[in-house]
Amino acid sequence: MPTFSAHDGTGLAYHVFGEGTPLICLPGGMQDSDYLGELGGLSAYRQLIMMDPRGTGQSAVPEDAASYRCDRLVDEVEALREHLGLDRLDLLAHCAGANIAALYVARHPERVSKLALITPSTRAVGIDATGETRRETAQLRKGEPWFAAAFAALETVMADNATDDSWKAIDPFYYGRWDAAAQAHQAAQDGRQNKEAAAAFGAEGAFDPDATRAALAAFNAPVLLIAGEVDLNSIASLVAEFADLFPNAELVVQPEAGHYPWLDDADRFVATAATFLA
Asked: What domains are defined for the chain?
């Protein structure tokens, strides 16, 4: 397992899959990159460089917990670029990792050749979902056998009365099919998030949406945003708003996909991503 040193001396790990031109991949949720797998087979087209953020997976826990803040994690991406000896990089980010990617682009636009944001979080650019938008998205699943219990739990979550059981009950909303593969994928993530890091990620000062929006408006490199049609986390209409911030962006809404489109339809996901990254 290869490692490198962040600018503050924290030892960070990454995992390599496939061959060819490197594609740096940032996971979300302040957890290690293992849940990304090989992105449904994208490693057949690009060399995937999967980074474990500080405090997750095989990466070291930093001395300063404040370094988990999103804007400070941008320096990890730059340190990895330097370590790999890349003048420019192609960057893929999932979920909360998209916030790091957006801030990296804002800070180092000349370093990014292509940017792919997969079911991205939109916190860094100040786009927020409403309760009604989440309910409308959830209603797309009303024909599912698990829907009634999951929707009741969702109402509890949105009312800030959630219990651990409530959060667990809404898991099916994040997958296009709540089958054995999805359940195994979700179970594998239980307990893997660094909760201290997740709490510090969006701390005061982490985001300046106006400044980030202005920087993205001047970023002319190609951008791909993939949304899942039924994703309750990164709602497709919000991802469309995110896409509109870039002058050279393509939005793809993957049909019947949730928050992990490479699991819901690997062939469709890989075809979309590989074509963009070719």
From this structure: 3-126+193-277 (3.40.50.1820)
